[in-house]
Amino acid sequence: MINIILCGGNGTRLWPISRTLMPKQFVKLFDDKSLFQLTVDRNSKVCDKKFIVSNAEQYFLAQDQLEENSTFLLEPIGRNTAPAIALACLALNKDEIVLVTPSDHLIKDEKEYEKVLNKAKELAKENNLVTFGITPTFAETGFGYIESVNQFDVKAFHEKPNFETAKKYLKAGNYYWNSGMFCFRAGVFLDELKKYSPKIYNASLNAFNNANKDEIIRIKYDDMLSIPEDSIDYAVMEKSNIVKVVPSNISWSDVGSFDALYEEMPKDKDGNTINQNHICIDSKNNLVYGNERKIATVDVENLIIIDTGDALLVSKKGSSQKVKKIVEEVRKNSELHNIHLTGYRPWGTYTVLEDSDGYKIKRIVVKPGQRLSLQKHLHRNEHWIVVSGTATVSIEGRTFLVRPNESTYIKAGEVHRLENNGKLPLVLIEAQVGEYTGEDDIIRLDDDYERK
């Protein structure tokens, strides 16, 4: 069985922890492991291989968190789950059984999970499309539901209900939360997709046939854009007559809100999440997250307090679903929805130390053997000061070394590149000066990582 891991999604309901370029599945929230890493570890016990579907920006995050090589398919833009799964299945033997999982779910009862997967695998071998229905523990209005009959047969899929309807579902006992996990033969899914959503199937087939297939499968932008956008539920599962559901009581959470995150994190005797930076005076039942500075609370209860250095969120527990509205406001006039103070790149990281009108100061770390793209900027000059390691610098065709406590200067418009040919990380301070210092003022002329 092959585990297809879907890495799309930005997790906007967990802003400011989750950003477009560091979404929640890659944030190390649990014992210094990310949800992505926990997904890989969990499914490696029952699956022979991993097949990861990701966008190009998140590929390097996923690769850095893997302990062994995996097959990657990179999408230039997202078109929802039906195309993503179709493209992955097209790369596999049609008789291969696949387990499709999101990368951002938490499952704590792994023994029961293995039992559930074994049952799903049995049903998939009989050429069924199998979904996993999470046994509901309360009347949840934020999930879709699956209605079952005769234990494993699906009667209907239901949209997110209102509270009264959710209570009826809970009482009935044959309604399950839609987990977004699936199991089937690759060829059976493609046949059903072709039958019920032929436009998605044909466009996906064309995109896959035109893709670059070296070590990584890279779908071309225009081909991806031509695929109709739709979820696997709408495109196939709600239309097919060979769908089965496996009831799953596996201590599952999609960690889709701060209220859900609070339930999963360890807490002290007063119900506050454990945080070494939290100074607590008579405060109870609070989610406190922050790694960069002290957070002090006095006489407060049932709050969500999230500090990420460049953004602070304070909310009542029970209201965290409204965070998406905050993200909509943030998008209007800043990049805070997109990236943290520390940005992760395939060559290393950069951390913004100060950002003001006319200048920006960064700390840049380049991994051994890596180099930035050959590039130029139209609106800023750059000063590089090496702190540790040795930088190999190219400016306008001239290449030279810059050692600790030495510096160099790049004028706006000059073609340049930074490399670390040493065996230790290269650390430098970059001071940008100019009328515009945004991250999109980069014209890449050559790039080892095929970014545009």
Automatic annotation (TrEMBL):
It holds the Pfam family NTP_transferase. It is an enzyme of class 2 (transferase). Residues 333-447 form the Mannose-6-phosphate isomerase type II C-terminal domain. It catalyses: alpha-D-mannose 1-phosphate + GTP + H(+) = GDP-alpha-D-mannose + diphosphate. Keywords: GTP-binding, Isomerase, Nucleotide-binding, Nucleotidyltransferase, Transferase. It comes from Sulfurimonas crateris. Residues 3-269 form the Nucleotidyl transferase domain. Residues 277-329 form the MannoseP isomerase/GMP-like beta-helix domain. This is mannose-1-phosphate guanylyltransferase.
